[in-house]
């Protein structure tokens, strides 16, 4: 079973992603900000982190940096509704980044990406 951490400030969107991943058999932890994400990373191992690039509380890059130290095997799928890093530079800033997608990506497509990157570890 794959363990997935979702870090998303919009709880409704996070729940939609969580339900799709759970239907695929994933164990999913949903948090809304940096502090809870760090606590989750202390407590459990995750294959994949699905994280909004722009968090309401805290920094997604700080979470990704901590994850690369604490859980170096975890890959990060960054999700955003902005044009930040649309040039692909997120991969230079976060060595554990494996994908960068828009928030409007269909949940089933995001779930397929999670499964793909978890299998490729």
UniProtKB/TrEMBL annotation:
Phosphoprotein listed as a keyword: yes
Record-level GO BP terms: phosphorelay signal transduction system
Keywords of the record: Phosphoprotein
CDD domains found in the cross-reference section: REC (cd00156)
Cited SUPFAM superfamilies: CheY-like
Residues bearing PTM 4-aspartylphosphate: 52
Domain of life: Bacteria
Domain Response regulatory: 3-118
Protein name in the entry: Response regulator receiver domain-containing protein
């Amino acid at each position: 079973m794959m363990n997935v951490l979702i870090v998303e400030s919009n709880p409704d969107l996070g729940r939609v992603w969580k339900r799709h991943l759970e239907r695929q058999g994933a164990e999913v932890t949903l948090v809304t900000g940096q502090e809870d994400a760090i606590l989750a990373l202390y407590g459990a191992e995750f294959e994949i982190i699905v994280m909004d690039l722009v968090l309401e509380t805290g920094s997604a890059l700080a979470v990704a940096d901590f994850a690369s130290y604490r859980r170096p095997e975890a890959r990060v799928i960054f999700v955003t509704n902005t044009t930040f890093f649309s040039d692909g530079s997120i991969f230079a800033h976060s060595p554990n980044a494996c994908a960068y997608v828009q928030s409007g990506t269909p949940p089933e497509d995001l779930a397929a990406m999670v499964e793909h990157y978890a299998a490729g570890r």
